[in-house]
Specification:
The chain contains 8 helices and 16 strands. With 310 residues, it is of the alpha+beta class. A hairpin with a 2-residue loop joins strand 10 and strand 11. It binds pyridoxal-5'-phosphate (PLP). The site of pyridoxal-5'-phosphate has 14 residues, from helix 6 and strand 13.
């Protein structure tokens, strides 16, 4: 009789142990929860291999260091935990998120220096921000007046959980019948959306907001590489909301699905209201390179054990 894999729906690494994802818990008094004092990085696995794993590990480390946290696990161990997690699930396509939380300080203390910083991770089947039919058709986007938390308050290059601005903008978007949303910076220019960066194409030239108003997403960075390789002009510069509405093409980039067309902004059709030629070119290139194993770290599913929890 075959034994069911306890991790068939996903796995998490909590306080030094692997658990089925449905059993994953973070203590209520962890400041990661009570204060959003946390940082994350999300890596995707496609055809049994991580994409840009080393870049994600470096970014993750840079970010928790900036928040003055200490990770109990070094980079090699974190890599092994990720590999082991995917190996245990058996997923060939997966979405793996690693987190650091501030952790807990002695009860009643508000001294952030006393907290016991914690590493966590979970791995679930790959998350597509747009389902295949939505991707073909393109998503509709609402541009909210809500401002993204500014860089003077929270460093936007840190992949953090300050998401109330994004969540409320998404609610507004749903109220207006849109699939998703964008938030703006203090000058009313486009910042980013819930889990993605935003690009406009006008006369063959691609524009995306600069890194002081949004996360420098790993996929955004990949789009720059691919655009430059194919001699497409691409610039990081202020993107007024009106320029987005008047663009020939709009697309988003995310670990959760790669490159996805936006076919409507605030109810107005963009181009011919489906993925345009530049979007298709970058999207096709992104997935063909990934299928070819570009910048990938394969998971050894037959390994006995990659990482054994204590
Ligand atoms: N912007 C925000 C706010 C995000 O949360 C994310 C991803 O979660 C992105 C952009 C896209 O980043 P990446 O391409 O690394 O997934």
């Amino acid at each position: 009789m075959s034994v069911e894999n306890p991790y068939k729906d996903g796995i998490a690494f909590c306080e030094g142990e692997f658990v089925p994802v449905a059993e994953a818990r973070i203590p209520m008094l962890d400041w990661g929860f009570l204060r959003s004092d946390a940082v994350q990085d999300t890596v995707s696995v496609f055809h049994g291999a991580f994409f840009r794993l080393e870049d994600h590990l470096v970014r993750f480390e840079r970010n928790w260091s900036r928040l003055r946290m200490t990770n109990p696990y070094d980079r090699d161990t974190v890599r092994s935990i990720l590999m082991e997690a995917v190996r245990r699930t058996g997923f060939r396509e997966a979405y793996a998120q690693m987190l650091m939380t501030r952790g807990r300080a002695p009860i009643g203390s508000r001294d952030v220096r006393l907290a016991n910083n914690q590493f966590w991770m979970f791995c679930i089947p790959y998350v597509w921000i747009a389902k295949p039919d939505q991707k073909e058709q393109g998503l509709s986007m609402h541009v909210s007046d809500i401002q993204r938390v500014p860089k003077e308050s929270v460093d936007p290059t840190i992949k953090h959980y300050h998401w109330l601005d994004l969540q409320m903008a998404l609610m507004e978007g749903y109220d207006r019948g849109s699939d998703t949303c964008a938030v703006v910076d203090r000058d009313g220019n486009i910042s980013e959306g819930p889990g993605f960066n935003i690009f406009a194409v006008k006369d063959g030239r691609i524009t995306t907001p600069p890194e002081d108003v949004c996360l420098d997403g790993m996929t955004r960075n990949t789009v720059f590489k691919l655009a430059k390789e194919t001699n497409l002009e691409i610039m990081a510069e202020a993107l007024p909301a009106d320029d987005l509405r008047k663009a020939d093409e709009v697309f988003i980039s995310t670990t959760g699905g790669g490159v996805i067309a936006i076919s409507k902004v605030d109810g107005q059709a963009i181009g011919n209201a489906s993925a345009g030629p530049v979007t298709r070119r970058i999207d096709d290139l992104y997935w063909s390179r990934r299928r070819d194993g570009w910048l990938s770290s394969p998971v050894d599913y037959d390994a006995e054990l990659v990482f054994e929890p204590k």
